[in-house]
Design brief:
This protein is α+β, with helices and mostly antiparallel strands. It contains 15 helices and 15 strands. Strand 11, helix 3 and strand 12 form a beta-alpha-beta unit. Helix 2 runs antiparallel to helix 3, helix 7 packs parallel to helix 9 and helix 12 packs across helix 15. The longest helix is centred in the middle third of the chain and has 20 residues. It is elongated, with a radius of gyration of 30 Å. The mean pLDDT is 93. The structure holds adenosine-5'-diphosphate (ADP) and magnesium ion.
């Protein structure tokens, strides 16, 4: 059968506020259990929530970034369910009147085309606590540090048609929330989690098939793998004449399979009702406009500027604008190097290679952007060549000082004195009579290729310090005799 894949995503982004959504307790990761809590987070009767204004501002920022209607009156609702790590017996969320309404996102796909994905809504809600099963023999521990941590749940329309599109969409949301500075985007720590809704329908059919929801997929790679696995499972069932059960499933990356978790609950199972402890949130147009005016440059805008301002290729601009730290780093390098193409190549090439090898984030690079730029400036002004620069970068990485200090200390200055270079070339010509004769007998295009041999000899003799731009014409002249 020829199936069309239909995907809609729910992304939970943890907002980077100092304190919780409804209390003054700090939001932090990895603290000792139950130390980051107030009476509100513990769900003590009579403790009243106070809404965090900063979370509101962040949600409105996001709404603007995805071209959405802002909910001028939004309402918190209680979503009732029992779970040991939810002592209140309900999660405070938003139902009918979310803070962010209908919007859309134009997602750039791998092949450079754009796909518009509808945003259904984005609402504010609090996280629950955590149940701990290790270290408690025959019992469970409850840690409420995460309780009332602010989340923005971003719901997409079922507009996505492949695993690749899904990953591109999540990456784009990831770069938007990190650009806005409203979420740290750390998927491994759970700051961004993704529920993937998947169904299949025969190609050409209008009506959607029954979907399953894969909960809490926490990396881009797993999103792609989970989708492939689930699509295959559903196709097998449908092709055998079976029916898909609407349910919540879990993806197990070790076994590369999805497993049933629970049957799908409906909204009315939760007995949603407006929270009597919290007033509706009413915004003024002035407040909403002011946030819009203060939005930082977003990834697609930055990429467009890199193309127009720095004349970067679309590909380079895309890579360099994919994260804000990367973009900022590149712009700083460029400022001190004074050469856009050189800066782009080195940030995407040598620097990224070193960061990957050492599993470091660009923010933690031991070589800061200004210093890398100063190194590149020495290539540009012919003090060193590219090969020497790579060695110097390795030394800078190991904390041996700035480019200029290393050049000075190790005597790496490129030889640009034409007299010295000419003498060196003469020596090499004398030492390699057979090659010189061959060169002189060869045709012009063959000669070009043979230059490599002599260039190699010269670089060896000069320990890589001869300036190729100066060597080439002199070498050509002397070889031709
Ligand atoms: P619920 O409230 O039960 O979570 P929603 O209607 O809000 O359900 O949808 C949740 C997510 O599921 C949305 O991202 C939506 O795009 C997606 N979705 C809905 N129907 C389908 C379907 N048939 N196939 C795939 N995804 C779907
Ligand atoms: Mg849902």
């Amino acid at each position: 059968m020829n199936w069309e894949i239909v995907i809609g995503l729910e992304i939970h982004a943890q907002l980077s506020t100092q304190s919780k959504l409804f209390s003054g307790a700090p939001v932090s990761f990895g603290a000792e259990a139950n130390t980051q809590t107030t009476l509100v987070d513990l769900g003590m009767p009579g403790a009243l929530p106070v809404f965090n204004k900063e979370a509101l501002r962040m949600a409105v920022m996001f709404g603007h970034a995805v071209n959405a209607d802002i909910g001028m009156t939004s309402v918190f609702a209680r979503k009732n369910y029992f779970y040991p790590d939810l002592p209140k017996g309900y999660q405070t969320s938003q139902m009918d009147d979310p803070i962010v309404g209908i919007g859309h996102l134009d997602v750039t796909l791998e092949d450079g085309t754009t796909k518009r994905v509808g945003i259904t809504r984005a609402h504010l809600e609090e996280d629950a606590g955590k149940s701990l099963h290790e270290d408690f023999h025959g019992m469970s521990g409850i840690d409420l540090n995460r309780s009332s941590t602010p989340l923005l749940e971003i719901v997409s329309e079922p507009d996505i048609r492949s695993a690749k599109e899904a990953v591109a969409y999540v990456k784009m949301i990831h770069s938007i929330v990190t650009y806005l500075g409203i979420c740290d985007g750390n998927m491994a720590e759970g700051s961004m989690r993704c529920d993937v809704n998947i169904s299949l329908r025969p190609k050409g059919q209008e009506e959607f098939g029954t979907r399953t929801e894969i909960k809490n997929v926490n990396s881009f790679r797993f999103i792609e793998k989970a989708i492939h696995t689930e699509v295959e499972r559903q196709a097998d069932i449908l092709e055998d004449g079976g029916k898909i059960t609407q349910e919540t499933r879990l993806y197990d990356p070790d076994k590369d399979e999805t497993r049933s978790m629970r049957s799908k609950e409906d909204a009315n199972d939760y007995r949603y009702f407006p929270c009597p402890d919290l007033l509706p949130v009413v915004l003024t147009q002035e407040y909403v406009d002011e946030i819009k005016a203060s939005l930082p440059e977003l990834p697609t805008q930055k990429a467009a500027r890199f193309i127009s301002e720095y004349k970067l290729s679309e590909y380079d601009a895309g890579v360099l604008s994919s994260s804000r730290p990367m973009a900022d780093y590149f712009e700083k390098v460029n400022k001190s190097a004074g050469d856009t193409k050189l800066s782009a190549n080195w940030v995407m090439g040598e620097l990224s290679k070193l960061l990957n090898q050492n599993q470091l984030d660009i923010n933690d690079s031991p070589v800061d952007a200004n210093n890398l730029g100063l190194l590149l400036a020495r290539i540009k002004d012919n003090t060193i060549n590219g090969k020497t620069a790579k060695d110097i970068l390795a030394d800078m990485w190991n904390g041996e000082g700035s480019a200029d200090e290393i050049i000075e200390k190790k005597g790496l200055k490129q030889v640009t004195d034409t007299g010295a270079i000419e003498a060196m070339i003469q020596e090499i010509i004398v030492a390699n009579p057979a090659q010189v004769e061959q060169f002189r007998a060869a045709e012009a295009d063959k000669q070009k290729k043979m230059m490599g041999f002599f260039m190699g000899q010269i670089m060896k003799a000069s320990q890589g310090k001869a300036n190729p731009g100066i060597v080439t014409p002199i070498l050509m002249k002397l070889l031709k005799g």
